[in-house]
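Colleagues,

For the teaching module next term, I've prepared a clean inverse folding example: a structure given as tokens, and then the sequence designed for it. I'd like students to try predicting residues themselves before seeing the answer, so please don't circulate the second half yet.
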């Protein structure tokens, strides 16, 4: 089976590489010629553990290739995955310009039956628009080519995407009612996962489209909820980690995403929650729980930034902040909507000097905040700092040499926004220590 993946960003590249690992012939297409040239040289445009090895192996074995000519990939593919960006518009809605452009390109060059699958995260109703855009282009050509449109949302976590694809919690496939041909083709594509007894949710297109938003909105709400609890804990002298453990042991709730911190970020949760609220409003529905989660997340960022201000006596102007972590989570170089970036931006705006280090996200962070003083490692970051802030829980930050850090800082103050240390240990090491919800 030949598969075309249009868009070689995070989702498209991981999807294409993983399908090729199944033994499928995959062409990943992208109009960014420089990106395609880099991929052909084996240089990844993103950091994702294991991705470079996966790509190089399948390119070497002839199952995976890259092209800057999407029409060529479309013509040769039985299944065409749309995996282009769906950025947020200013009003919070989802910008579908790239989806429309690809859909029309498919209609312009389609010369036989295709299954067109939306892999990008898109609002409910997008598949209908994709069908309309393709059909309009076919009509212009006077073509009677037949095609199907399906939804197969991705549930990939940055930093664990390959494992999520190869050993997923579930695979969701949405097709038009009665479109047995498209369903059979997509199921055949995923046959290795059927053999591994992966749960499959076979449903209609609208349900599949909504499932991604429902999952992300729920997880974002869970994060915001425990952050609200953390504020209560700080007022009453409670321990949010104890509360989270007590909650998480209830099998109805579970322990995941109950970690208090500076709030959610990244390319998915912020964008998808806003998009869900927007399309619900278009239907005349107030998505009140998700709206509250968004507000709570915004407040949490200000709350933890205020912890840094408090640690510095209420005024950060002229002070030096040593910041560990810039990506929105560990094992990625993604700084999109990163809480660490938001905190750093606020501190810089208030007159602080921010010295920073991240194992992977330095280049992206420099583009986001040119005023950052980027350092080569943890200890250079600590030099001359008036406070040490841990903003992202990279493993290499979990076993710091406290004596060395204390000598490098102007003042032995730590603000631990990820609760990776114990207060008693930090106090014993001679630090003034602030954390979240404890």
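(Answer key — instructors only)
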């Amino acid at each position: 089976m030949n598969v075309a993946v249009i868009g070689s960003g995070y989702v498209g590249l991981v999807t294409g590489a993983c399908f090729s690992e199944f033994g499928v012939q995959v062409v990943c297409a992208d109009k960014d010629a420089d990106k395609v040239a880099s991929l052909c040289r084996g240089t990844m445009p993103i950091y994702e553990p294991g991705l470079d090895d996966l790509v190089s192996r399948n390119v070497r074995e002839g199952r995976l290739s890259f092209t800057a000519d999407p029409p060529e990939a479309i013509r040769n593919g039985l299944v065409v995955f749309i995996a282009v960006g769906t950025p947020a518009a200013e009003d919070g809605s989802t910008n579908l310009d790239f989806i429309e452009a690809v859909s029309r390109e498919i209609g312009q060059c389609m010369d036989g039956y295709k299954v067109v699958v939306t892999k990008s995260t898109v609002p409910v109703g997008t598949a209908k628009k994709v069908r309309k855009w393709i059909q309009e282009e076919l009509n212009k050509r006077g073509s009677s080519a037949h095609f199907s449109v399906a939804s197969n949302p991705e549930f990939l976590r940055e930093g664990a995407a390959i494992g999520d694809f190869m050993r997923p919690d579930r695979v969701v496939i949405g097709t038009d009612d009665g479109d047995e041909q498209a369903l059979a083709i997509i199921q055949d594509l995923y046959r290795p996962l059927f053999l591994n007894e992966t749960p499959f949710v076979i449903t209609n297109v609208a349900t599949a489209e909504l499932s991604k938003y429902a999952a992300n909105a729920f997880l974002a709400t869970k994060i915001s909820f425990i952050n609200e609890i953390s504020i209560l804990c700080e007022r009453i002298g409670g321990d949010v980690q104890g509360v989270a453990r007590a909650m998480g042991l209830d099998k109805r709730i579970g322990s995941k995403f109950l970690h208090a911190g500076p709030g959610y970020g990244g390319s998915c949760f912020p964008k998808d929650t806003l998009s869900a609220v927007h399309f619900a409003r278009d239907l005349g529905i107030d998505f009140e729980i998700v709206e509250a989660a968004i507000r709570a997340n915004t407040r949490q960022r200000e709350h933890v930034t205020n912890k840094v201000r408090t640690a510095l006596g209420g005024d950060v102007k002229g002070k030096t902040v040593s910041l560990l972590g810039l990506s929105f989570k560990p094992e990625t170089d993604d700084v999109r909507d990163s809480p660490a970036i938001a905190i750093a931006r606020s501190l810089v705006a208030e007159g602080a000097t921010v010295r920073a280090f991240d194992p992977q996200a330095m280049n992206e962070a420099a583009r986001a905040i040119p005023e950052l003083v980027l350092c080569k490692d943890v200890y250079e970051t600590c030099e001359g700092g008036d406070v040490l802030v841990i903003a992202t829980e990279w493993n290499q930050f979990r076993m710091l040499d406290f004596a060395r850090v204390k000598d490098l800082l102007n003042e032995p103050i730590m603000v631990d926004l990820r609760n990776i240390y114990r207060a008693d240990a930090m106090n014993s090491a001679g630090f003034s220590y602030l954390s979240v919800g404890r």
